[in-house]
Amino acid sequence: MFTDCPKPLICSKNRLRSPTAEAVFAEYKGLEVDSAGLDRGAEMPLTNEAVLWADIILELGG
């Protein structure tokens, strides 16, 4: 169900939660992941391209 489709992992600043989740899930065969943040000061801000690339977006609230 969750394999074979791109998934960005989103948190606020892309400093802890989403990069950690990206590292963990990158090991899963057939799973394509990326991470981004929602805040202006995010290390890697969420882009329109990432939203269009994604089949599903997982928000890692805290």
- Beta-strand portion reads 15-25%
Helix-strand category? alpha/beta
Helix-strand pattern = EHEHE
Question: What does the largest sheet look like?
Answer: 3 strands, parallel
Helix fraction? 10-25%
Please state the average pLDDT score: 89
| Spatial gap, N to C terminus | 25 Å
Total beta strands = 3
Shape: globular
Number of helices: 2
- Identify the strand order in the major beta sheet: 2-1-3
Radius of gyration: 11 Å
Query: Ranges with pLDDT <50 over ≥5 residues?
Result: none
Description:
The chain is of the alpha/beta class and 62 residues long. It has helices at residues 17-25, 48-53, and strands spanning 6-11, 32-37, 58-59. The longest helix is centred in the middle third of the chain and has 9 residues, at 17-25. The termini are far apart. The model has no long low-confidence stretch (mean pLDDT 89).
Brief write-up:
By secondary structure, the protein is an alpha/beta fold. It has two helices and three strands; from the N terminus they run E-H-E-H-E.
